[in-house]
Amino acid sequence: MKKLTLIILLSLLIGGVYAQKKVLIEDYQKVIEAAKAEFDEAMKAPEGALYLFAEKHQIKGTFNLSITIHEKGKVATVFVKKNDGGSIKSQNTLKDYLMTYKFNFKMPKGNDYKFDHTFQFN
């Protein structure tokens, strides 16, 4: 009985590890779409990570940013293209946060993906 319980427990643990594997996206446009969709999801109230961050740091305004992500799903660069109604302090706080952001998908090695995205905080 102990062996059966152990086998079941190990099967569940191994299954959980494989279920959390990140999806590999290879198409350039699909990587950008996935990144934008993930940012949009993070902006949703009441539990999105970006939404909660903005609430905590009192970020207001609309920020149009140019973002580059690197092969491991890490944000490599963030440049402000337009700041509409937001303070410089809020802008810099948002940029610093985004530089620590890591996406929940994999990309091909050696590629960078650059895109513009607008973040609107009320």
Set out the fold topology.
Elements (H helix, E strand, L loop, with lengths): L1 H18 L3 E2 L3 H15 L6 H9 L3 E9 L5 E10 L3 H12 L5 E2 L6 E9 L1
Parallel strand pairs: 1-4
Antiparallel strand pairs: 2-3, 2-5
Describe the overall structure.
Helix content is 44%, strand content 26%. The mean pLDDT is 87. The longest helix has 18 residues, at 2-19. It has one domain (23-121). It has four helices and five strands. It is an alpha+beta fold. The radius of gyration is 18 Å and the shape is globular. It has helices at residues 2-19, 28-42, 49-57, 88-99; strands at residues 23-24, 61-69, 75-84, 105-106, 113-121. The strands form two sheets. A three-stranded antiparallel β-sheet has the order 3-2-5, covered by helices on one side. Strands 1-4 form a two-stranded parallel sheet. β2 and β3 form a beta hairpin.
In short:
The protein has helices at 2-19, 28-42, 49-57, 88-99; strands at 23-24, 61-69, 75-84, 105-106, 113-121.
